[in-house]
Design a protein that fits this description.
It is built from 1 helix and 10 strands; from the N terminus they run βββββαβββββ. About 5% of the residues lie in helices and about 30% in strands. The N and C termini lie far apart (about 35 Å). The chain is an all-beta fold and about 180 residues long.
Length: about 180
């Protein structure tokens, strides 16, 4: 079952948290869509890096504002060399992102994005928050739901890909004034 964000903490617009189990999806090809939220392509050998994708909203109800960032959080009006930046094709990384994924990592808010992961599973070997990819959800990229919202791909390595993996992951986009 796909993982969904929990309600944002009262009074904040800049923190989104997912807690639950991430697991393999039956959708094996990196270029096959749609994909479930918080799952990774099946088939990689144990110890291989895979990209776990998180739409920064609920895939059950994308309009639920308690489970997504408000639009003002994605503020690109702040100075950061010719903002806002257009989406560009991602550089493929085996098992993580493909050329069909449109990178939006150069947008001002994406450069400020903070990701914190608390692994509660023994089968999660590594989580590389320093190598995340921020991509756009289109019909042929991201999760393939064509929401136009950001998807964060977090590279992870598992010792046993067959087990569901308990995780607590928080995405924070600091307020414009603190950028």
């Amino acid at each position: 079952m796909a993982i969904q964000p929990i309600d944002r903490p009262a009074g904040t617009a800049h923190v989104l948290r997912f807690t639950g189990n991430i697991a393999e999806t039956a959708n094996t090809a990196i270029g096959a869509f749609p994909k479930p939220n918080g799952e990774y392509p099946s088939g990689p050998i144990d110890g291989a890096v895979v990209g776990v994708r998180f739409l920064l909203a609920s895939t059950v109800d994308g309009t639920d504002m308690a489970k997504r960032f408000p639009s003002h959080v994605y503020d690109d009006a702040q100075p950061a060399a010719a903002s806002p930046h257009a989406a560009v094709a991602s550089t493929p990384v085996a098992g993580v992102v493909g050329a069909v994924d449109m990178s939006i990592a150069l947008r001002t808010w994406a450069q400020s994005l903070k990701v914190r992961v608390l692994s509660k599973a023994v089968n999660i070997l590594t989580v590389d928050v320093g190598a995340i990819h921020v991509i756009l959800d289109t019909a042929t990229g991201g999760l393939g739901t064509n929401s136009g919202l950001p998807v964060v791909v977090v590279p992870m390595t598992f010792t046993d890909n067959q087990l569901a993996s308990a995780i607590d992951i928080t995405f924070e986009i600091p307020a414009s004034g603190s950028r």
